[in-house]
Design goal:
CATH class: Alpha Beta
CATH superfamily: Ribokinase
CATH architecture: 3-Layer(aba) Sandwich
Shape: globular
Family: Belongs to the carbohydrate kinase PfkB family.
Organism: Rhamnella rubrinervis
Radius of gyration: 21 Å
Number of strands: 15
Distance between the termini: 22 Å
Strand content: 15-25%
Region (Disordered): 17-40
Strand order of the largest sheet: 7-6-2-10-11-12-13-14-15
Keywords: Kinase, Transferase
Number of domains: 1
Structural class: alpha/beta
Number of helices: 18
Domain Carbohydrate kinase PfkB: 118-390
Length: 423
């Protein structure tokens, strides 16, 4: 149903000592959660395959009876550092490009970064949305606490332990056990003084995604399943995505798909529409991604793409940068004006917007215009800061704003496909 056509370098002794002392991503992750830098270092150094405490975290007794949102996505640790042009030239890297590298190349770059100032974070578009949602849902005054989780693939190496620990500290549970002898995927982001970013992606175990009985049982007790579009780009993930969506549909779970990237959609167009056309209740996309899903030319307006997609998907969310956004339902598109802000960093704006939409759905908002305004406000908050993560204090203020501006007349208590299709 579609509308048209070796382990992490082991971090060598030199690199291991560097990794043990890297700067954690405090400005966009844990600075407002009393993060202890020494504790971060312990996680990285000791989070290995024999860590019984880490493995114990996968016991179902520690999990809630039901998840509000379960994300299925690519688990990658981001290394972000400032370098000069000479650094790129020395490593023969083309500035401003994105390149997939093997573990030898990754090791070479990380060793070259030894001595540079860089940060590490539990990265990824989906994790940005989940962390924002968890923080919005952690304010007692804004309604019942939200239980948020993610499933994906990390290795049994120190970086895998770091990834799980960072998400858990942000109240997002990582449900998947580490892959024995696997290496956690990473993205190295090198920024030069002219603000150009050169990105090196190492897939590691993130390209392996298994749908097992444990994940199936958790999914059956979930309100919303969010599938990250980047997974479509990885080998052998389509079967796992299909099984997860089938289980979600049978269990009455809402299925949300993030478009993620235009090139990903173009390369895997049929796979996207196999899932979107048969299972999706919600699609998150920016204007370019929406056009790609529709096979529209660049001259087509985002409102046209939103309307078109809404014939196939009950609820469509399309962002258009500083021009605002659209929510599509039953062939119609509702325009959402942008929330005022002074732009600082646009990275993560779409991820934040998606968290606002899901928050509105989980809180039972039936007013789509109000839901979109809430999402736009969350996105503007992230755009007005440095970094991709919604900060805790900002999340508290946004949740309080929600509680104050939406009364019981605009809120419904039932969450499910019927609720979405009724819009």
């Amino acid at each position: 149903m579609k509308p048209g056509p070796s382990r992490l370098l082991c971090l060598s002794s030199c690199s291991a000592s560097r990794a043990a002392g890297f700067d954690s991503a405090t400005d966009e992750d844990e600075d407002d959660e009393c993060a202890d830098e020494e504790e971060e270092r312990v996680v990285v150094v000791q989070g290995d395959e024999d860590d019984e405490d880490a493995d114990g975290a996968f016991g179902s007794s520690l999990f809630p009876e039901r998840w509000d949102v379960l994300g299925l996505g690519q688990a990658m640790v981001d290394f972000s550092g400032m370098v000069d042009d000479e650094f790129l030239e020395k490593l023969e890297l083309e500035k401003g490009t994105r390149k997939v590298v093997n573990h030898e190349e990754r090791g070479r770059v990380l060793r070259a970064m030894d001595g540079c100032s860089y940060k590490a974070a539990a990265g990824g578009s989906l994790s940005n949305s989940l962390v924002a949602l968890a923080r919005l849902g952690s304010t007692p005054g804004g309604g019942p606490l939200l239980n948020v989780a993610m499933a994906g693939s990390v290795g049994s190496d120190p970086l895998g332990g770091f990834y799980r620990a960072k998400l858990l500290r942000a109240n997002v549970h990582f449900l998947s056990a580490p892959i024995k002898d696997g290496t956690t995927g990473t993205v190295i982001v090198l920024t030069t003084p002219d603000a150009q970013r050169t990105m090196l992606s190492y897939q590691g175990t993130s390209s392996t995604l298994d749908y097992d009985s444990s994940l199936a049982s958790m999914l059956s007790n979930t309100n919303i399943l969010v599938v990250e579009g980047y997974l479509f780009e990885l080998p052998n993930t389509i079967k796992a995505i299909t099984k997860a969506c089938e289980e979600a549909r049978q269990s009455g779970v809402l299925v949300a798909i993030t478009a993620s990237d235009v090139s990903c959609i173009e390369k895997h167009y049929d796979d996207f529409w196999e899932i979107v056309g048969n299972y999706a209740d919600i699609v998150f996309a920016n204007s370019d991604e929406a056009r790609a899903l529709c096979h529209f030319a660049s001259k087509e307006s985002p409102i046209s793409a939103t309307r078109y997609l809404s014939h196939f998907v009950p609820l469509v969310s399309v962002t258009d940068g500083s021009r605002g956004s659209y929510i599509g339902v039953k062939g119609e598109a509702i325009y959402i004006p942008p929330s005022p802000c002074i732009p600082v960093d646009t990275s993560g704006a779409g991820d934040a917007y998606a968290s606002g939409i899901m928050y509105g759905i989980l809180r039972g908002i039936s007013d789509l215009k109000g839901m979109g305004a809430l999402a736009a406000r969350v996105a503007a908050t992230v755009v007005g800061q440095q970094g991709t993560r919604l900060r805790v204090q900002d999340a508290v203020e946004l949740a309080e704003h929600f509680a104050a501006h939406f009364d019981s007349s605009t809120i419904q208590s039932n969450i499910g496909s019927d609720h979405i299709s009724s819009f």
